[in-house]
Amino acid sequence: MSSPTTPHGADQRRGPFRSGERVQLTDEKGRMNTITLTPGGAFHTHKGFLTHDVLIGQPEGCVVSNDTGHKYQALRPLLSDFVLSMPRGAAVVYPKDAGQIVTMADIFPGARVVEAGVGSGALSISLLRAVGDQGYLHSFERREEFADIARGNVETIFGGPHPAWQISLGDFQDEVVKQEAPGSVDRVVLDMLAPWECLDAVATVLAPGGVWISYVATVTQLSRTAEAIRADGRFTEPDGWESMVRGWHLEGLAVRPDHRMVAHTGFLLTARRLADGVTGLTPKRRASKSEFSAADLKTWAPDDEKWDTEALGERAVSDKRLRRAAKDAASTVQRGAFKNADQPDGAGGQVTDQ
Strand, coil or helix: what is 346? Predict the structure, then answer.
């Protein structure tokens, strides 16, 4: 646990390797595995075994050899490594988008932030790191299974419950106005299918000048949210964008873009709350066909009740998988390990639990 003067979870990120810690091993071919250090334990591969006792007490960044002489570089997993391989029920917010959210929404130490939905807790972890122990993050989630998974993942990476975090079950637009005072929230972060349905709730709890940022998957969601914000009049002109990350191959003079990249994952949309009674400025634009009708709304959403994961081309998550992920996330708090849960392409290697 952290001392009164040390930010929560910081002690786990420094010093020599200790029993119960997760360590990321990288071999000479760049293959990565994550193990949990246990006295007397061993990491086995087809190329031999490495005893955990060799690592316990060693400084981070050391290089060790197994019984056949194969070398491994040992480091603590970064947040991005953990997020891409932690137990999950819902798709996670990728590190590239979480970084954009923290920066573009100006999530500052001590900020009061509300979030919906929490999913598997990936974005919650980044938000908690940004607001710090003296801040406040209230996460709203409709599904109890997702909340359990998120709670386990957050407690795993921080070494226990975070003092700034509260999680509640229920619909955001109904619950947030009951649990947060009007104008008391600095930032609102929404990761949901229909953020336009939360306009009144966001406008009620968000302080003047506060930032509302939404993460949406499709162009139709982006467009409808932006038009709803414009029509409401209590917010500044919305700003939308997406980010794409392309790595580079660096080897001598062979410097070129990687063949694969993390391209579209989602769109981000921001707007700021205006003071009560103020009418926002409408940017002057050239005349264009930007008006829309009720028929156009049908192209956005033929039936509002069909705004679900399947309508957006996402795979539905089975109850069995959710129960398994929640069990894995909860168990990591006790044993300090995490398993490889449907790791996407480009994630930090396989995860083993020795």
Answer: coil
In terms of Cβ atoms closer than 10 Å to its own Cβ (0-12, 13-18, 19+), residue 61 is: exposed
pTM for this prediction? 0.80
Written as tens digits, the pLDDT of the chain (354 aa) is 445 578 888 888 889 999 988 899 999 998 999 888 999 999 999 999 999 999 999 999 999 999 999 999 999 999 999 888 888 877 889 999 999 999 999 999 999 999 998 988 999 999 999 999 999 999 999 999 999 999 999 998 898 899 999 999 999 999 999 999 999 999 999 999 999 999 999 999 999 999 999 999 999 999 999 999 999 999 999 999 999 999 999 999 999 999 999 899 999 999 999 999 998 887 776 655 556 666 666 665 555 555 555 555 556 677 777 777 777 777 666 665 444 444 444 334 443 443
* Coarse DSSP helix, strand, coil percentages of the chain, rounded to the nearest 5 percent: 30, 25, 45
Omega cis (within 30) before 119: no
Grouping H, G, I as helix, E, B as strand and the rest as coil, residue 199 is helix
Token output for 191: 């990761």
Do 31 and 349 meet the contact criterion of CB atoms below 8 Å apart? yes
DSSP secondary structure letter of residue 5: T
Residue 149 to residues 61, 82, 275: CA-CA distances in angstroms? 31, 14, 38
Indicate the residue type of 80: S
